[in-house]
């Protein structure tokens, strides 16, 4: 499994990349003297300031350690003992967090099939018929991913419509923003335009997949829900003692729009890759390329040949669909070399 | 609360210190090219090798993100649905983890008062009378802290006696080793001599309080319990995607005995501090100084004066007892300056 | 909502019926002098003896208070902290127990659509691809309902095939037997022929829907799993202090095959009802009638008219499907009167 | 263990007694025709009416199946994810419910030693120092038992003082009223005088230990907390499908003050027993006799001899303290016979 040195550039995940130099420099600069633990330091104060600048004066940001942690800490204050979450059946919380939602939150996920990873208002409405029945968990949160797990993006209008539907029924809107930066870059909007301005109640803002070492944030836009987060973060094992080093990473991303720089670049590399395979016979792009992911369906023999040379994962092995991810440090040459091997793999059989 | 710059050196906690330069260099060196996520990288392979070298060929190490996380991930595979933990009433899992043991593990803590933070075999035996009664949780794990929360250390013989008592009754022995390095340094033993060689089943090995940025390890010595850890680590939100940067920290600590160098130094600074106050009128050392902590009882007016100049915490405000911690980067000058201010504080009233 | 006196006979649920006289007499007879609490009484001893007679010498029976309780207590000893249950998406544990499986057990339900409420071996096999991946809950239990929530029954061979598939993959087979008696009556088998003899590991045996006041049993056929049940029953709030009155109900059902008498009768009444509507224009029977339930699809105007006169529930309002249940005390006259009103309702529009 | 027939009358527990004839008659009378399940029946309506008559127009009553169930369902709506309960270390929820509070509620019990099983306002105040610290669970509920586990009673004034202390600090007051009837009988007050009128927020009202078969109630006096109970009751496995038979028991107890008749009688029998041993050499009454329990300390040889003839339990074997319980059906002859054997046991050694 020690495959790192034998592959030219990984297209398996944006967390196969390392740390952006600016972020590592910010961490190194924070290693200066003593600082109070658990957040009472000036780097964390700066981070909190960045959050209010970016997401509005009512936004409160809480740094955490990883994406699943950001989801669990963000969802916890929204959910009572018999509440359920409406989400897409591809949602990360439903598929790749080892049942943390069920075990740590004790909640039920009411999952819905979607064509493109995106929930629609009618998917929410269809789940509301059980409201009031004490035999069934009560839908309380709608959780969406921006970017979705299929690499697609909700438009601001689509998010607003979901928020309206949720709020009208007394539900809250949560967003898994592990790749929020990629969405804002793709949509060419501010980060606030797809969160604060469209009715999201709590969301996560991911740093790790966008060049950080290990840093995510839970952002609370509904002030009444913020009070609980410090307790929930501590109890959920998501509080760093040397917090300044987490805060410094997030502040670096939020300074001079480094987040957008990194995400735009990764998105462009995905587009370059998608364009490069668009006309190849035998390859189909499975979902619209709206971020740093390309989902492609190709012959299994070609995939097998390609996997000998490049690291990436099947998304749906039965369907022959693979996922290729780009990162902040993917170069045009990386993509072009990969395209070259793809072309060769396709002709092997 | 932005007190960092206004204080000369914190004696409040060993996690007020920054990162040891060697560890930060190791992290920087790991930022080279791509690496598989979640642990399939060569830095993690090296870490796993270090663990076997240090703790024996059956030891399996799993890197996690913080101390509470290490405790929860380590305890989880030992506990069934109606099992309880016997521990000191000062145990960190009982007092400072926001009820994570109860909520995340669903377990009951059978806490016992102690004179010095150390559990004795008879404390365990006294809890066994409920075994077999289906109205009561079943004692299943004995959990001790090495160093204890009162700064004291168990001798290898004391640990072995607890392991024997636990095992004879069908219980397992867990050790919270957030400051295990300080214990081995104080006892002048290897790390294995107070874990592998004396019957511990699962323990944590702390890095963060000993110069790391954020890195702890769960070490499993009972092979049958290791299989569950990767699932529990992921579900408990303790899995880093860019794992190489956590593994690199732990490997740096385990290379050339950096762990012992840092811990010994911190311990020596605590001893220097304790010696410096030993003869001062009005100050009493509350517990034997066997690590990097000094617990002292002094007049409240003196404490108040001292808190104006130095950062530290009350341990027991009613009793007038404070806790002073030293770290890998505390210097003799830091201690001497602190002693100077302590002396002046004592004469103020 | 105080509808009981205004309706001639409920077809809404088999638990709208009262208690069979023989069972109430057994409870009254048990009200004689003192008895140890929590199960150490002679009525419970008799019940345990009946269980071994009925399900074999290795079977251990534990009386509990309701059906959801029987499911949770029975599933708990099979599931570790990151284990999941494969079940039909109509399973009672998935739809009508207010998320108890997720909250009390902390488990994830891997639900599968079915044509008739019955899981097939390939449905299990399709869920096994995640075994070994620490990002996903691990399938550990296959849970089926006999009778299913759609009124259908598994043949002994079908259960055996599921048990083989589960066991071959290291999974266990659980059966929700809230209406196990109805299944054995329909299949004309013994109770053991659809449990002990076909590889079920733990199942529930329902009394309440078959004439008891409130009595279910958890039956463990895999001896190593039985030890935990008394602790889990107590912790899960399913232990009766005056246990003799629960045990007496179950013993009454198991004496002189009262369970079969009651269940056969209820099944026959459902068949009479189904036969009565078979030729009516506008009504379709939705699922094979293999127990005491009839699922029928009819025009909504007819349903509305019928609901003015009789108590029953929509199963799928969008599809126009209703569920009619019969009970041990439903008489041919009840059915015939109901049929008469059904016929009249159909012609109203 | 089938000891029932070999002992003349159990003094081990009030749930060794059977069912009061009036209650069994009420259950039999409820076995008439069909009734909606889960509570929509006229017996439940009557029960709810009794609750309002007894505890005031804002009181809402919910019938459940056993005492631990009543505690868990009653505590659940009061507790968030990081909240703790302040209680006596003898509290039933802390000692005899197999860790249900920790596992089902995920809460931490902040237990306090007491002289007589009764919590004082200063015990509550002493626990409030952690309020606001995100490293520690937050005290949110004060839970007391009336009658306590040591057989003592809180006066109305004592309860009011605890309620004031709790409410002033933002906490809620819960009461485990498994023997509430015995307390009201001892204090010669109404049931409302020790609940509604003195600031209790949620409490349980026990029936089973006072002559019912299996029936307890959760009573909510703070209207905003009532909405959640039906969902929590269902999820916590405490909802009876044939609810009418539970409701009928509780209504029977609340009709013509049967609850007081039964409890007064049991209390008087305990007083008769206590008076009978008061002057015996070698026996000490351990706690004030204020209900249907007598705690006595006597020589172990005498206890051993007595246990050959009568069924009861050690409370504290090391101290030689036993617990003798009386019930609604204990007669003066039962007590006098028991006293006779006690006297003989004392002279044996």
TrEMBL record, chains A, B, C, D:
<keyword id="KW-0663">Pyridoxal phosphate</keyword>
<feature type="domain" description="Aromatic amino acid beta-eliminating lyase/threonine aldolase">
    <location>
        <begin position="11"/>
        <end position="297"/>
    </location>
</feature>
<dbReference type="Pfam" id="PF01212">
    <property type="entry name" value="Beta_elim_lyase"/>
</dbReference>
<protein>
    <submittedName>
        <fullName>Threonine aldolase family protein</fullName>
    </submittedName>
</protein>
<dbReference type="InterPro" id="IPR001597">
    <property type="entry name" value="ArAA_b-elim_lyase/Thr_aldolase"/>
</dbReference>
């Amino acid at each position: 499994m020690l495959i790192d040195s034998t592959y030219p550039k990984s297209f398996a995940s944006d967390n196969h990349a390392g740390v952006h130099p600016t972020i590592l420099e910010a961490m190194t600069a924070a290693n200066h003297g003593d600082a109070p633990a658990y957040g009472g330091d000036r780097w964390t104060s700066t981070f909190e300031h960045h959050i209010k600048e970016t997401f509005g004066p009512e936004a409160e940001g809480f740094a955490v350690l990883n994406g699943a942690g950001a989801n669990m800490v963000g969802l916890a204050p929204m959910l009572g003992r018999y509440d359920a979450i409406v989400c897409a059946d591809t949602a990360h919380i439903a598929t790749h967090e080892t049942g943390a939602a069920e075990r740590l939150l004790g909640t039920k996920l009411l999952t819905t099939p979607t064509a493109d990873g995106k929930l629609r208002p009618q998917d929410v409405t269809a789940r509301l018929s059980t409201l009031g029945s004490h035999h069934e968990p009560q839908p309380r949160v709608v959780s969406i991913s921006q970017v979705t797990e299929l690499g697609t993006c909700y438009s601001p209008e689509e998010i607003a419509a979901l928020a309206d539907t949720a709020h009208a029924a007394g539900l809250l809107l949560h967003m898994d923003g592990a790749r929020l930066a990629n969405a804002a870059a793709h949509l060419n909007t501010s980060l606030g335009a797809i969160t604060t301005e469209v009715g999201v109640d709590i969301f996560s803002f991911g740093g790790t997949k966008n060049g950080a070492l290990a840093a995510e944030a839970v952002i609370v836009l509904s002030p009444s829900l913020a009070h609980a987060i410090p307790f929930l973060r501590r109890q959920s094992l998501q509080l760093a003692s040397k917090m300044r080093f987490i805060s410094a990473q997030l502040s670096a991303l939020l300074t001079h729009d480094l987040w957008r720089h990194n995400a735009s670049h990764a998105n462009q590399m995905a587009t370059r890759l998608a364009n490069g395979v668009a006309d190849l016979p035998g390859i189909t792009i499975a979902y619209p390329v709206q971020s740093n992911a390309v989902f492609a369906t190709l012959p299994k023999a070609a995939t097998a040949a390609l996997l000998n040379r490049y690291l990436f994962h099947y998304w749906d092995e039965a369907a022959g669909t693979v996922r290729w991810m780009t990162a902040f440090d993917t170069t045009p040459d990386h993509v072009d070399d990969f395209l070259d091997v793809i072309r060769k793999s396709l002709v092997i059989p």
